[in-house]
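Rotation project, supervised by the postdoc (A.L.). Task for the rotation student: set up a whole-complex structure prediction and record inputs and outputs verbatim in this book. Inputs entered:
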Amino acid sequence: AQSVSQHNHHVILSEAASLELGCNYSYGGTVNLFWYVQYPGQHLQLLLKYFSGDPLVKGIKGFEAEFIKSKFSFNLRKPSVQWSDTAEYFCAVIDTGTASKLTFGTGTRLQVTL
Amino acid sequence: DAGVTQSPTHLIKTRGQHVTLRCSPISGHKSVSWYQQVLGQGPQFIFQYYEKEERGRGNFPDRFSARQFPNYSSELNVNALLLGDSALYLCASSPRVQAYNEQFFGPGTRLTVL
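Outputs recorded:
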């Protein structure tokens, strides 16, 4: 069964610091990859997704992620975080063979201080 | 346009009771998926329904069941509640059956089992 690992459970950064959140998945077949974000008191919403093509994908609010197939990784990055980026971030994967469910990681809580 | 709506917002039940959670997808979306999010964990897939048929099932006991109605709304039923069923239950809708289509999440129903 596929699984997703997010190694950083809680990250604290100062405003303007650079961010990189790790995500690794276990499935060896063709996958689609996602990052979702949950701001305090809000719904889960899609930040960015990778299906195929350019392994560097750009999302909303200046976030980007790089798919490295050889490392089974899909790390999320942002050059300069803002206080408003404080949220919980979830990496998720779909096995294109089953195509019916998202498998989520356990999430990373990002706290940005002023 | 209205997003995914879920009712009720919060619910408190006691062990052994039954609960029904409701979800209305975004207009035009025919697929509804249910996820359980236990505190400190990522969402876990429970069911997907498309065109009133079950298209996917996660690793949950038979106490969990769901259905989808002709208007594409959905209910999640949980029988014989256990303390471990306490969680945020999320509903997500998408326009087609393949989960790699972006899934739009509702605000969730917070279930507490005492």
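Student's summary: Chain B is about 0% helix and 50% strand.
Supervisor addendum: The mean pLDDT of chain B is 93.
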